[in-house]
Amino acid sequence: MATLLYRLGRFSFRRRRLTLAAWVLLLALFALGASTLSKPTTGAFSIPGTESSQAMEVLAERFGAGSDAASAKVVFTAADPMTAKSLADAVAELKQAPQVAAVADPVFSEDKRTAYATVTYTVPAADVTTESRDALLAVEAGAGVGVEFSGEVTRNAEASHLAEGLGIAVAALVLMITFGSMVAAGLPLLTALIGVGLGMLGIQIATGFFDLSSSTSALATMLGLAVGIDYALFVISRYRHEITRTDDPEEAAGRAVGTAGSAVVFAGLTVIIALAALAVTGIPFLTAMGLAAAATVAIAVLVTLSLVPAVIGFAGRRILPRGARRVTGTPFGERWARGVLKHRVLAVVLPLAVIATVALPALDLRLALPDDSTAAVGSTQRKAYDQLAAGFGAGSNGPLIIVVDAGAAAAAQKAIVGLDDVVMVTPPATDPSGTTAMLTVIPASAPTSEATQQLVHDIRGLGIASLAVTGATAVNIDVSDKLSAALVPYLAIVVGLAFLLLMLVFRSVLVPIKATLGFLLSVAASFGALVAVFQNGHLAGLLGVETTGPIVSVMPIFLIGILFGLAMDYEVFLVTRTREEFVHGAAPDDAIVSGMRHGARVVTAAALIMMSVFAGFILADDTIIKSLGFALAFGVAVDAFLVRMTIVPAVLSLLGRSAWWLPRWLDRALPNVDVEGEALSRRRELAGV
C-alpha cells in the first residue's frame, strides 16, 4: 500500500494543476446535481415493521388518514375566554393555505383560555413547501389572542452555520500554532472545506432519491470537517519532516503520502466501518445518516491522498516556517512519554479513576426521542408545547391512537380507562365498513416520560388480540426500543471488524485488544458527562442547555460508532510510528518514546481541532446535534489525552515485547499491508538516500 500511495503522492504533486482541476470540476458537477435534484429533509423518525408503523398503515387503509401526511397544531391563547366564533376567521385562513387538506374545529380547554386546531396536509412533511409553511406561520387571530405553532411542518430545515464557523476559527488558530506558517495552517482548512462541500452537495443530491433526516447534513459536516482537517494535518506534518531529509519536494510528497497516507487510509476505514455498520440495525433513517457521514469521511480520505499533495506543490517552500530547521530542546512528546514510562503504573491507575468517576452518571441513563418540549426556549414550537400542557395537561402533547377491531372497541375502552396515567379515552370511531375502530387516549404524563412509556406497554399487554397502539408518541417509543435492541449487535459487528483491521495494521493481538478496551473507557466517560449535563442539568446553564430530560435515543449508537472510529484514528497515528521504530530494532520503551516524540504534538493538535469543531455544534438549536457535539468533544478529549497519550504508552511499556506478539500461523495468513512504509525504506536504502 505504501508504494501505491507513494506513487499517487508524486503524481498529484507533479500534475498538481490537473489534480486541482479534476476536483474543481467534480465540485461543479455536484453543485449542478444538487441544484437540480435536492428536496427538503425530514425530522420524522419511524421504523417500518413495528406495531405503531403497521397500525398507521391500517389507519391509512381503513380511515383514509395518510400515514405519512404532515400535520401541525395551531395553539390559541387569550386572557379572556374564547369562542369558536372568535377563531372562525383564523380557521378559515388556515383552510385556504396551500397544501392543506383539512382543519379540525378548535378544541377548547375547560377555562376557554386555550384552544388548538389541528391542520392536516395533503403531502408528507418533507414535501411541504416554504410557501405553505410561511402561510401557516402568518395566521393571526385578532387582538388579544396569541397564536403559536407546533409540529414538524413549522420547523425550518435551514441550519445555522455559526457552529461550523466557530469550529473552523479555532482549528485555524491551532494549526497556526502547530505549523508556525499561515500557508501550512490554511492548507488543511482549504482541503477539508472542499471535501465537506462535496459531501454536503452529495447529500443534497441524495435527498432527490431518499428521505433523509434533517440531522444528516449536520452530522456529516461535523465529521467531515474534523477528519478532513486532521488527515491533512498528518500528511502535511510528515511532508515537513521528509523535506528535511531530501532536496526533492516531489520525493518528499511521495514519502509523506506513502507513510502518513497509509495511516490515514486505515484510520479512515475504521471511521467508515463504524458509520456504515449502522445499516445492520435495520433502521432506515439511521442507516441513511450513517452512510451519508461515511461517504463524507471517504471523500475526506480521497482529498487527503490526492488534493493535499497537489496543494503542497502550489505552496512550495512557503509551507515551512522561518527557522524551521532550528530545533532546540527536547520535544514535548518525548518529555511526556518519558514521564509516563517513569510512572507507568500511576499513569494507568489515575486516569482510570478519573474516567470511572466521570462515567458514574451513565448508570442513570434514560432514552427518548426529541419532541417540541426540547425545542429552544422562546421558539414557537416550545411556546405551543407549554401552552398545550398548561391548558390541557402534559399528555395532550402526545395522544395515543388505538386501532382495534370494532367488536372489541368497547372492551378496549373500558380496559384502558382503568389503567394508571390515563386522563381520557375518546369514544370509538369506526371506519366506513364498520370493521375497525379508532380510539384516542390522553395520558396524564408528558410524551417522553417514563410513565407514558409504561402506559404504552400496559395497553399492549391487555391481551386484546386485535389491538395496536400508534401515534407519534408510540412511534417514538418503538424507535427507542428498536435502537436499544440494535445496540449490542451493532457494537459486536463494529468492534469485530475493527479488531481484524487493527490486527492487520499492527501485526499484534494484544494491541487491538488494548485499543478496544481504551475505546470503551472513552465511551463510558462520554455517556457519564452527557447524562450529567443534558439529563441531570449539571453545568447546563454554562453550556446553553435550556431544557434537560432524557437523552435522545439515537445518541448511544451514534456516539459508539463515531467515537470508535475517531479513537482508532489516534491509536493508528500514534502506535504505527511506535511499531515502525520497534520493527526497525528499537527496544520497546525506546520505540514508545520515539513514537510519542514524532506523533504527540500532531495528535494533540488534531485532538484540539476535533474538539473545537465538535464543541462548536453545542451552539446548535437541534437537540441531537447539540448533545452529540458535546459528547464527541468530551469523548475526544478523554480518548486523546487520558487514553491514547497516557494509558496506552503506559500499558505498552508494561507489556514490553509481548505487546507485538502474533502467532506465526496468523502472521503468515495475514496480508502485509506495509503501513510503516518498509518498502519505501528499502527503496531509499537501495537509492543511497
From TrEMBL:
It comes from the Bacteria. SUPFAM superfamilies: Multidrug efflux transporter AcrB transmembrane domain (SSF82866). PANTHER family: MEMBRANE PROTEIN MJ1562-RELATED, MEMBRANE PROTEIN SCO6666-RELATED. It is a multi-pass membrane protein. Belongs to the resistance-nodulation-cell division (RND) (TC 2.A.6) family. MmpL subfamily. The chain crosses the membrane at residues 165-185, 192-210, 216-236, 257-285, 291-316, 345-363, 487-505, 517-535, 547-567, 602-620, 632-655. Pfam families: MMPL (PF03176). It is found in: Cell membrane. This is MMPL family transporter. The keyword Cell cycle does not apply. InterPro entries: MMPL_dom (IPR004869), Mycobact_MmpL (IPR050545), SSD (IPR000731). Residues 200-314, 489-654 form the SSD domain. Keywords: Cell membrane, Membrane, Transmembrane, Transmembrane helix. The lineage of its organism: Bacteria, Bacillati, Actinomycetota, Actinomycetes, Micromonosporales.
